[in-house]
Amino acid sequence: MPQEFESQQTSASAQTAGQHDEQTVERKESGLAEQASGLDSLLDDIESTLETNAEEYVSSFVQKGGE
């Protein structure tokens, strides 16, 4: 009997561990999606700024005599 009980516990533990792993993967994927969304919005902001002020932005990097 103790061996049967131990086998059932091991099986239940394995299922619980599998469910925990799936939940961890889902959380990581949602976190990555949030980060990607944040990065996309940042890049969109940069792009719109450069569209309106590209010449001014580039001219700030141009070296003027003796600098």
Automatic annotation (TrEMBL):
It holds the Pfam family Pup. Pathway: Protein degradation; proteasomal Pup-dependent pathway. One of its GO terms (biological process) is modification-dependent protein catabolic process. InterPro entries: Ubiquitin-like_Pup. Residues 1-44 are annotated as: Disordered. Residues 19-31 have a biased composition (Basic and acidic residues). NCBIfam families: pupylate_cterm. This is Prokaryotic ubiquitin-like protein Pup. The lineage of its organism: Bacteria, Bacillati, Actinomycetota, Actinomycetes, Bifidobacteriales.
